Structure formats: C-alpha cells, structure tokens
Amino acid sequence: MIIILEMAPAEIPLLLKQTDGATFLRQTLPPYGAVEFLAKRAAPSDPVASVGDWAVAYAPNPAVFWHIYNDRRTYAPAAVQQVLRESQARYLILPSSPQLKELEAATQPAGRSQRLYQDRDFVAYELEK
Questions:
Q1: pLDDT tier, 9 (very low <50, low <70, confident <90, very high otherwise)
Q2: Starting from the edge strand earliest in sequence, which strands make up the sheet with 122-128, in order?
Q3: Whose CB has fewer CB within 10 Å in the chain, the N or C terminal residue?
Q4: For residues 105 and 101, what is the distance between their CA atoms, to the nearest angstrom?
Q5: CA–CA separation, 101 and 12 (whole Å)
Q6: Structural domains in the chain?
Q7: How many CA atoms lie within 13 A of 88 on its CB side?
C-alpha cells in the first residue's frame, strides 16, 4: 500500500501513467514550455538569453543558456539589453507580462526578433542580427 501525504493535482495523472513527463512539466513548471520549444528548435551550440525563465536544466545546452531572474519577477529593459550583450544570443525568452511590449522594444538594438512561441507565461523569439 502506498500512502501519499502531499501531492500536486498534476502529479496524479503522472503517477497513474495517464500523462507523460513533458505534459506534467508544462502543467507544473511555468517556464518549461518555452524551453521545451527551443530544445526542439535550437542547435546545442545556439546561445539562449532568458529573462525570468529559470528552467535552465531543460535548456538545449545549459552551458549557453544565459538568464536573469529576480524574486519580484519584474524586469527593466536594461536587463534585457544586459543579457543580450553578455550572451550574444540567437534565441530570447521573455516573460508574458504587462511589460512585454517594453521588454520587446529593448531587443531592437540587437537586431530584429521573430516571435516563435508563446504561452501564458513566456514568449520565445529568434534573433536576427
């Protein structure tokens, strides 16, 4: 007999094998969807810059995943510019937040960006230099 003292609702279908690990992670880990998308699209050598997305363990290559995260989850355009300068990123992840347009505008000095993916939490872009 197994006794489960505490469990998140999304864990039940996983435990019962009614869902897979990726679905479970998308339901329970908000930044996972954008990183999962890039893991399928980006080459392992492609640098990824991320603002607010801390799921580095699931990145295509954690060694070239540059991220900025703070507990308040509010970010200034300068943070976007900083992570882009440091990373020379080919891809960028931004939070889907009320300040999204302002953060997107901060990418302009780095070149054009094309939105590739969006969910309720994050947006992923390809940066064209």
A1: low
A2: 65-68, 48-51, 91-95, 122-128, 112-118
A3: N
A4: 6
A5: 37
A6: 30-128 (3.40.190)
A7: 3
